[in-house]
Amino acid sequence: MKILQAEVGRGFQFGPDDKILYSDGAVLEKDEKEFVDLASKFESSITEKDYHPGPDDLVVDLVHPSLYHLVYNRTKILNNGKLETAQFEEAIKAVKKGVADYGVSQKFQWLPALMKLDDEKQFTFSSYINNLHPLKNAELYGSIAKIFNLAVPAINMSLARYQSDEYVRIPTAYFGEYYTEGYDKYEEKLEDLIDEGADEEEFEAWEKGKRAYYREFKPKYDKEPETKPFELRDLENLKVIVKLANIELTPEKPEYKGGSWHVEGTINEDIVATVLYYYDMDNIEESRLSFKYAFEDPHYDQGDECYCEDFYGIKNEDNMTRMIGNVVAQKGRITVFTNSFQHHVDAFKLKDATKPGYRKILCFFLVDPYNTEVKATDVVPFQNEKWVNDKVLMEKFFPGVDAKELATMTEKEAKEYRDELMAERKVIIEDNEDYENAYTRLFFLCEH
């Protein structure tokens, strides 16, 4: 772990997993002040708050990918300089072989911006951030890019660990290796109990007695971790989805009850890592971001409920996920993690219930750099009808594109599509009957 720590970069340390990192020192004071000032200026320019759809009106979307996103069979895209209508194609899900259909949308895709590596080995935006006007907020674009670049060392490490072999420090049994040799004779007692018509209490006593025959599996750790190197700056460009959002509490609404457990996006976006920057907070109690991971069926003898519970801590019909811990969300902190974890924002409330409070966050969702199927804003002209009607903006970003040929949206239409997208993704997140979903399937003890 010391070797890994030395490779991460300024101020980053590991969270509850080696693919989760955080830092309170990655963003220098001058960079933080610049971003906070520019973000505040942008926020002040918004005349009407856009509350994230939900019952409480606590989450304010400043920049959110669920507005003016790509809509298959409607949105226009550029293909070799010519406009055509975006279509859902099988290749979109084929890039992730073995992925079930539950994580694929045949209707929508969030739109990432393109970031290119400049001569100073820094990533800068070369296309527009969806829902953040690129001319009116040019300075903010630069500040957002600066924050992203400060997170690159942690992104590199989290993805390096993700692509490397998992550390298995305690080996588990394979079939036929669960018990010591003496167990065979002990198992004969079960047949006697059955023949004698033993009661439930006697069978339970026999079950507990099996523990004396468990085979011991000692921890095995005989070498330093081996990590396959990964470097984002070896790539010429990245696709990055940007989000800015606030959670705003008031004396009338003093508590945020927590978010849903989720992974980010669908296969359509193919998000591989998330960066969260908590750039401002005031008058709220401690807030945490919690993590779970999913696991495969463990090895066990048919019907051996006792063994499964003792060795793996799992009972029949348990959800096949495990909590691994959390990271505190505090002002100035950057948190980075791979999109292999289910996560959610824990509940928090006002520190002083007589005054308002808030938590403000900048998010980056990094698309798999090797996925060429995800459409970015370099090839997706504006859909916001106000932006399309801005001739200077169109000429700057899409010269030669006829605005009349674009399928624009009014704000009302965009919000209707947002509601539809969120309803679709809510089903993906909350469908506990979907046994193909890695995060909702249950463990069923094999008894035959």
TrEMBL record:
Q: Which residues form a coiled coil?
A: none
Domain (DUF4246): residue spans on this chain: 17-390
Q: Which domain of life is it from?
A: Eukaryota
**The protein, known as:** DUF4246 domain-containing protein
Q: Which organism is it from?
A: Candidozyma pseudohaemuli
